[in-house]
């Protein structure tokens, strides 16, 4: 299975697990499995909850690894992309840099495993040039993030004015805080496509202003 297809299948499975765990009356992603008196909750299937939480953790880890492989292949694609120099009156004729057949074949084999295709000849592949710096690895139902369209597994390309650099988590928190009650433009990579969302940080019944958790990638 190509990496892009595998990642999409994993995101679908993660979303299904989150939906089941976060159903009304459910335990959520990290809620207690015991009641206020210290006894196991009788309203939930505790073994099943533990199994699904463990599976979700495994999927998150594998998702991050696959995402890294895809990003590496995207960078490879850009590093070998041929460039053409336009002809000018000073030059005797146009110059064009092309890849050797061996290089194209090697790159093609690598990129096809990631869901991309490469053919010999001029390449004009439309890919997202930004590199994701964070991934939504937890999101609460009815949260501002969910209402704004963010989904589990979304890879953040840009959040307001934040799109890379140092101290990213602190800057994400500061960006949300400084825009409380105001719509923030969020660009994410979802199933290989760029998606632009509008998320409004605000106080709600849950924790934080967004109700989601970001993990650096």
TrEMBL record:
Family annotation (Gene3D superfamilies): 2.30.42.10, 6.10.140.1710
PROSITE patterns in alphabetical order: PDZ
Chaperone among keywords: yes
Region (Disordered): 81-101
GO CC terms in record: cytoplasm; nucleus
Record flagged with keyword Manganese: no
InterPro entries (alphabetical): Nas2_N (IPR040815), PDZ (IPR001478), PDZ_sf (IPR036034), PSMD9 (IPR035269)
Keywords: Chaperone
Domain PDZ, residue spans: 115-192
Biological process per Gene Ontology, one example term: proteasome regulatory particle assembly
Superkingdom of origin organism: Eukaryota
PANTHER family, alphabetized: 26S PROTEASOME NON-ATPASE REGULATORY SUBUNIT 9
Protein name from the UniProt record: PDZ domain
Organism: Arabidopsis thaliana x Arabidopsis arenosa
């Amino acid at each position: 299975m190509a990496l892009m297809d595998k990642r999409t299948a994993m995101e679908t499975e993660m979303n299904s697990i989150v939906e089941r765990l976060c159903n009304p009356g459910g335990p959520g992603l990290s809620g207690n499995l015991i009641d206020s008196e210290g006894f196991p909750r009788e309203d939930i299937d505790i073994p099943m909850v533990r199994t699904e939480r463990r599976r979700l953790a495994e999927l998150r880890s594998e998702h991050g690894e696959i995402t890294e492989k895809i990003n590496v292949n995207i960078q490879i694609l850009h590093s070998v992309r041929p460039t053409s120099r336009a002809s000018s009156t000073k030059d005797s004729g146009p110059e064009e840099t092309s890849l050797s057949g061996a290089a194209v074949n090697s790159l093609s084999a690598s990129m096809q495993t990631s869901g991309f295709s490469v053919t010999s000849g001029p390449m004009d592949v439309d890919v997202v040039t930004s590199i994701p710096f964070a991934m939504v690895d937890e999101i609460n139902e009815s949260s501002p993030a969910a209402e704004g369209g963010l989904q589990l597994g979304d890879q953040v390309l840009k959040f307001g004015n934040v799109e890379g650099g140092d101290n990213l988590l602190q800057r994400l928190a500061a960006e949300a805080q400084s825009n409380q009650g105001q719509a923030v433009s969020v660009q994410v990579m979802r199933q290989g496509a760029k998606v632009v969302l509008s998320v409004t940080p605000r106080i709600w019944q849950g924790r934080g202003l967004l109700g989601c958790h970001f993990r650096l990638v």
